[in-house]
Amino acid sequence: MKIPTLITTMLASFVVTAALGQEVVNLYSSRHYDTDERLYSEFEKQTGIQINRIEGKADEIIARMQAEGANSPADVLLTVDTSRLERAKNLDLLQSINSNVLENRIPDALQDRDNQWFGFSQRARILFYDRADVTDPPLTYASLADAKYNGKICIRSSTNVYSQTILAAIIEHLGEAAAKAWAASVVKNFARDPQGGDTDQLRGIVSGECDIAMSNTYYFARAIRKDVSGLSEQINKVGWIFPDQDGNGAHMNLSGGGVARNAPNRENAIRFLEYLVSDQAQQYFSAGNDEYPAVPGVALSPSVAQLGFFRADTVDLSLVAKNVPLAQRIYDEIGWE
Ligand code: FE
Question: Which of 7, 54, 235, 252 is in the most buried spot, having the most CB atoms within 10 Å?
Fold first, then answer.
């Protein structure tokens, strides 16, 4: 680089910093909901810290952080699913933080034991069924393996993070052998090869291709709240079951985040995460995607309240996350596509 260019560059960066004198937090997020705008503007108003957002698909954001390495400007990673947060942790993209606010507000089961990731909202992964055709819907995850549901079940592929985490939770509860036997029997009950997203599983009930489907609650709540093509117009066909109400409770996953390994604005990052567990932010954060707040006692959005009260599985997701590689291995071994 020629000297005049170097000077110009240095000067330019100095001028930007000095002129703005602006505190910032660089947020890498796979969230893209309208209500998040309020979430961010409220934080900026309260703290004077400006949020710079980089949004994209979760796996692309993680790949970007990997590629940027030690020079990454990322301060905070926000994404969904325990297995993905755990992957970010294992890739060394996150750091441990100490925050009494986060410790006190977020239940232990919804945060990493090393404090590298924290859950900010929850979603239940539950069972749906065709009200007209299914007179005895499955009341437990275990019963999906029952031969009476042969040819009836629509469910996602094993490459999907939700599929990985629910089997990881079953491993945590029942052990590897029982989890493997369960998965092998569920495969025999497939109505079709695993395909599509959660909404497509629900659409399968409406179209008549599936009698029973598994989906996260927010896809269903969203289709009640607003028009989702191929689903909303006939949503009354679809019944729902919160499974395992006499046992461990319905499987819960989370949307969450953590502070990036090389966060240039670490203190601001922690302040942002602490802001996310305030009552008001919890409401915005969960309502934006028809989810359940992570902080106990925060009001539910009307769209999820209508699904009713249920017992949630309180298994420690930090332990569940560790079973994800084994879950993937089981899926591969038993031929769950
Ligand atoms: Fe989702």
Answer: 252
Q: Please choose, from the candidates 39, 89, 82, the residue with its C-alpha nearest in 3D space to the C-alpha of residue 62.
A: 89
Distance 271 CA to ligand 1 centre (A): 26
Q: How far is the CA of 220 from the centre of ligand 1 (A)?
A: 11
**Mind listing the pLDDT tens digit for each residue in 96-130?**
999 999 999 999 999 999 999 999 999 999 999 99
pTM to 2 decimals? 0.90
The predicted-structure confidence for 271-292, as pLDDT tens digits, reads as follows: 999 999 999 999 999 998 999 9
Contact 201, 214 (CB under 8 A): yes
CA of 221 from ligand 1 middle (Å) equals 12
Distance 200 CA to ligand 1 centre (A): 12
What's the CA-to-centroid distance between 12 and ligand 1, angstroms? 42
Q: Hunting for tokens 């007209």 — which residue is that?
A: 132
Q: Please write the tens of the pLDDT for every residue from 194-224.
A: 999 999 999 999 999 999 999 999 999 999 9
